[in-house]
Design goal:
Elements: E1 4-10, H1 16-28, E2 33-40, H2 42-52, E3 63-65, E4 83-89, H3 91-98, H4 105-115, E5 119-124, H5 131-142, E6 146-147, H6 161-176
Parallel strand pairs: 1-2, 1-4, 2-3, 4-5, 5-6
Helix pairs in contact: 1-6, 3-4, 3-5
Length: about 190
């Protein structure tokens, strides 16, 4: 099995639980992973502290990069990170990506992933969408990205907020090509 090199970007959109559940699942899938590089915006850290009441993002065994660290390996296509997951993805971040504005490591990494024709998954969390948001989603999709709105499913009968978030994270991991155990509709 070829192990994956994954970039996870966490922006300041509401929905820190999605990032937390993704981090938890990536730790469980470590046998499929060569490297996980994480970038969190300042707002992402603030929203995490507000929504989850902690700074547990510091407890994960991933390599964290400063939002302005353009020396991070995935700031260049030569590092061959194959997947980037932006979770949650703010509309501001999506707009900068859609218009090629690489003013921080998150937008630069997304630019690299798209130009190298690798996998970019943007878990957008805003609602409702304005026409500007929709057009930015269209632009990123046309450039090869995947827009995966943070719309949970309920047919697995989730009981906790983390289980609800897990329905989205499971889809993201499927899109990223991970082998995982997950609820599958009409499968036993």
């Amino acid at each position: 099995m070829i192990k994956k090199k994954v970039i996870v970007a966490v922006t300041g959109a509401s929905g820190s639980v999605y990032a937390k559940v993704l981090f938890d699942q990536l730790q469980k899938l470590k046998d499929q992973i060569e490297a996980v590089g994480v970038v969190m915006s300042d707002n992402a850290k603030e929203v995490w502290r507000f929504e989850l009441g902690n700074q547990a993002y510091n407890d994960y065994d991933f390599t964290f990069y400063n939002k302005n660290d353009f020396n991070a390996p995935f700031a260049s296509g030569s590092a061959k990170y194959d997947t980037m997951i932006i979770i949650p993805c703010s509309m501001g971040t999506l707009g900068r990506i859609a218009h090629g504005i690489s003013n921080d490591l998150i937008s630069r990494a997304a630019d690299v992933v798209l130009k190298e024709r690798r996998k970019l998954i943007a878990v957008v969390r805003d609602t409702p969408f304005s026409l500007i948001h929709i057009n930015n989603m269209k632009t990123v999709t046309e450039a090869g990205g995947i827009i995966c709105p943070a719309n949970p499913s309920y047919y697995s009968l989730p009981k906790t907020i983390e289980e609800v978030a897990g329905t989205v994270v499971s889809r993201v991991l499927d899109l990223a090509g991970f082998e995982q155990e997950s609820y599958r509709w009409q499968e036993k």
